[in-house]
Amino acid sequence: MVTDPAARVVKSRPESREATELRALRVQHPDLEAAVDLHLELLELQRRIQGRVPLPWLEVTPDVLTRHQADAKPVLRFEDIPLDISDFRLMVRQTADVLRRYGTIEEGDYQRIQTLGRDMTLLEVTARWYRSAVEKQVAVLSVPGAAAFTEAGDDVVDEVIALAMRPFLSRCAEVLQQRPELSLWTHSHCALCGGEPELACITPSAERHLICGRCGLRWKWETLACPYCRNSNRAQITSFATSDGHYRVYACDVCHRYLKAYDGRHSSRPVMPVVDAVATLPLDAAAIQRGYSA
Ligand SMILES: [Zn+2]
Ligand SMILES: [Zn+2]
Hints:
Layout: H1 17-28, H2 33-50, H3 62-71, H4 85-101, H5 107-118, H6 122-142, H7 155-177, E1 197-202, E2 208-212, E3 218-221, E4 237-241, E5 247-252, E6 258-263, H8 273-279, H9 281-289
Parallel strand pairs: 1-6
Antiparallel strand pairs: 1-2, 2-3, 4-5, 5-6
Helix pairs in contact: 1-2, 1-8, 2-4, 2-7, 4-5, 4-7
The chain binds zinc ion (2 copies).
C-alpha cells in the first residue's frame, strides 16, 4: 500500500483578516493572550456555520424603513432569521465548550447550557432573548432615564445565545448594510435587530458610526451623545483617547455607561469589532475603575 502524503493535507481556507489581526495583537500584547485565543476559537466556530447560512429575504424599501423609523421598531423579526435549528444547537453547545475551556463559565452554567442546547425550549428562550432588546429600547424611549433599567435575565445564557446567534444575525445584517435606505434610521439602537451598540467607529470624515453588539450592523449617529440614555449635554460626557490615538471612550455622567470607539482617522485598517473588543480590554478596566459600566 502506498500512502501519498499530499493526499492527507487538508485543504484549509485562508485565515480571516480578523484572525490575522488577533494573532498580531497577541504578539504585541502577551497579557491579552488568553482573550485572543478564546476569540480565535469563537471566530472559527462562527465562520464554519456562517458559510452555510443563506441570506434572508428582507423587505427593505424607503416606505418600510420610514415606517420602522417612526415606530423605532427594527426591521428583522425573529421568524425571518434563517435559523437552521441543528446548526444553532451545535453553535450553542460548542460555544459553551469553548467558554468552559477558557474558564469563562462555571461548571453548573455549562451543564445548564448543554441541556438547553438539546432542549425543546431553546427556540423559545432565544426568541425571548431576541425580542427583549426591542422591549428595552421602547422602555428607554418612553421613560426618560430608563437606561438604568436592566431586565433580570439569565446573563450567562444570554451571553452564550448572543455568541451562538452571531453567524445567523450577521448574515442578515449584510443585507441591510448595503441598502441606502439605512440612512433613514436615526435611532441609537440597531435598525435590524434592535440590539444596543457595543462599539463605535469614527470615520476619516469625523462621523461617528455605531456598531450593533448582536448583528454587527453599522449606522451613522450623533458624534457625541450617549446612545444608551440620549444625553447630549457636552458637560456631562467625558471623552478621552488612548495614548496611541487608536481608540476613544465616551463616558456618560447621566447613566454612567460608556461606549468605546475605534478612531479610523488615525488608523490604517478598518474597524474590526472582535479584534477591537479584545484590544480595548485595558480600556474597559480603566472606564470601570472610573465608575462607569459597559
Ligand atoms: Zn443588530
Ligand atoms: Zn447615558
